[in-house]
Each structure stands twice: as structure tokens, then as C-alpha cells.
Amino acid sequence: MVACKEDQARLAEGKPVSALDEAANSGLTEPSEGYRLDEHALSRWMTANVDGFRGPLNVSKFKGGQSNPTYRLQSADGVYVLRRKPPGVLVSGAHAVDREARVQSALSQVGFPVARIDGYCADKSVIGSEFYVMQLVEGRIFWDATFPEVSREERPSYFYAMCDVIAQLHSVDPDSIGLSDYGKPGSYFARQIGRWSRQYQEDPEAGRDANMDRLLKALPERIPQGDEVAIVHGDFRCDNLIFHPREPRIIAVLDWELSTIGHPLADFAYHAMMYRMPPHIVAGLGGADLAVLNIPNEAEYMKRYCRATGRETIPDWHFYVAFNFFRLAAIMHGIAGRALRGTASSTQAIERGKTFPELAALAVRALENLP
What we know:
It is built from 12 helices and 10 strands. The chain has helices spanning 22-25, 39-49, 97-108, 155-170, 188-201, 210-218, 264-272, 290-293, 298-309, 317-341, 349-353, 356-367; strands spanning 28-29, 57-62, 70-75, 78-84, 117-121, 131-135, 230-232, 241-243, 250-253, 260-262. Helix 6 crosses helix 12 and helix 7 crosses helix 10. The radius of gyration is 20 Å and the shape is globular. It starts with 21 loop residues before the first helix and ends with a helix.
């Protein structure tokens, strides 16, 4: 999955600090108690299951990855990345590293930019949980959605690369790559709203919010007519992409934990939500002067996606954006709960959880089609 995030260029001086900024999430750290791996057991497993692997093995942990802990594995034959389930009591159905490995393996068949999967282990006795090992992809990760590290003239190309890759994903036929059973087809919004509503309601310890309670009632009543089916990433944003070291080209899409068979417009709206996202929450463009930065605006970006996917327009756009702010609010609410119970991997989990009420408020504004 992962590039060496510690090698990325520094954010431009004076930029706002995001909860998902590079300083908080890049670099390596010594795994803390509960997150340490049995290097000898892991080395034995890799010797038996990963072609070309040669020990000894040195393990360090990436700072990022608040959901599924991610590790850098240095061996005699090169560097690998390991993703595992976190320790502790987990929400049912979450942290599905087996699905992450499966979808990336499948998409690699059709040339979609993903890391090579080198092995998956369901045997919890090796390191204490399921895990998979993959290729380390070297490149650039942009933590700031304004792309300050590239020139003003180049920025449109980087944005169009993101748009084209998510359109490419939505154009892949799940059946053709063995993913017909990767998720339930149809009724995506009803199922997703139900899922995240239940997760919110079943975790009162993480807090309650009036806007969130309102969304639980309003969103099911606003679901657009019709349905579409595609492979959806679920967390497609600039800091989950590895770009070529010098070119505006994506060489790997990261973090497939939330991927499934779903509605492509839900996935695209989540990505395009960057235009309204305050940068202190996640990589967002909220409040940025797009003309000065030479970044295509939301309408231009939508047109690019529509051309790439054969659409004329996207009706009910405000619903898709509201749904995604609601969904992200529910995710952050879950992170807050895990932080309280001590099962969140990232040291930034508590701060992330605090963004839940702001995201719920943004969802309500989007649903009401307010600026």
C-alpha cells in the first residue's frame, strides 16, 4: 500500500494544520505496547509465503493509519508494508484487511494503480491478528489539498489525474475481475445510512449531536430515485494517493478499508467533498482561493468526471455531498469511541473524534443546499 511518507516534501510555510497533516502522520515510530509484532514469527511466515523474501526483518510503524495499523518491514531483499487489524474489541465488520488485500489484487488485473499484494494471513497466532503484506510504492503523497509543492501551472493536471483515476475505478466491471460478491448490489444509500446510523446509535459513549440526530431522520427521505453499481473506494482523497515522483500521474491508490460494491456518485461526491471541507479536519479546500491557486472549481471538476463516465450532469448533487459529510461524521464518531476505549491506532484519534459535530453541521448545510 504505502509510500515512504517520511520522505515527502514539507508543507508550505504558514499553511493551516490539518488533523491529517503530514507532520502528524508521516514518518516512523517504535510500535507501542499492544502494537508490537513478533518479528521472528512474522519472518517465518514471510519466508514460507512471500516469494523472494529473505530475513532478517526489522519492523517499524508508520505514524498514520488510525484504523488499521500500518508497518514498514525492512528485510534483506527490500522493503515491504504490512497492514493488520488493531488489537482490542472491534466494531463488527470493521478493519477488514482481507477485503483490502482482495480488492487490490483484483484491480491489479486490469492495470488500475494499486500496490502489489505479496501475501495475506488469516492465522491470528502469527502476530495476533489478520494481516497482509504488500509492495512499498515510492512516490509523492500530498497532505495539503492545495498541492503547494507543485507549481501553479501544474496544479490542474494533478487534479485531473485524481478525477480520471476515480472515473477509471467506477468504469471497472466488478464481475470481470471476480468481485461480483464484494458487496451487496443496489439500495446502497439506504444500507449505508442504516449502517452508519446504527454505529452512531450503538456508541453513546462517544457523544450525541442534534444535527446528527436530524440527519438520521432526514437522509432516508431524500434518497434519489434510481440506482447504479460500481466498485467504490470509500476514502478517495489526495492523501490516500501516491503520485509519480515527478509527474502528475497516480501510481497507487491507498487505504481500501471502506471499499465495496456501491454507488459511484456516492464515491465521487466523497472525493469532491474536498471543495467544502475545512482543511483543519482532513485535506480540504474550504476557504481556499481556487482562482489564485489555479485549481479547477467544483463545477469544472464535476464536468470532467461526467465526461469521463458518460454523464450529462449529476442531479441531486446536494444529497450526495450531505450523505458523505454524514458518513464521515459517523466515522469520526467511531474514532472518538475507539479513542475512549483505547483501541484507536493513531495518536491523533482523540483530535479527529472532536471534528464529529462540525462534520454533522456541514452535512445539514449541504442537505439544505446552503453555501
